[in-house]
Amino acid sequence: MDQASALYLDDECKGVMGNRDLYEYLAKVCDDCANVYRSHELGQKCRQECFFNKDFVQCALSIERRAEMENLNRAMSIIRAGRK
């Protein structure tokens, strides 16, 4: 297995394998936020629970993604499919 595939398998999101583009769309919010605040820990918190957490929302708002919230929520619900 290559490293890229392992990255997706290690994540908490059950629906990510068929939706890598959506995962990367959401992960970019966390990456951008971590870069703005220079906090690797914030980037990790942002990804917890398959992006379904207050840190993700705060990151999206703080990096001016308010207009994308509907699309971000839709992407999140797709890749969270299959979670218990």
TrEMBL record:
Record localization: Secreted
Q: Which positions carry the signal peptide feature in this UniProt record?
A: none
Q: Name one GO molecular function term.
A: neuropeptide hormone activity
**UniProt-listed Gene3D superfamilies:** Crustacean CHH/MIH/GIH neurohormone (1.10.2010.10)
Judging by the UniProt lineage, the source's domain of life is: Eukaryota
**Secreted found in the keyword field:** yes
Could you confirm whether the keyword Secreted appears in this record?
yes
Q: Which Pfam families match?
A: Crust_neurohorm
Query: What name appears for this protein in its UniProt entry?
Result: Uncharacterized protein
Q: Which organism is it from?
A: Halocaridina rubra
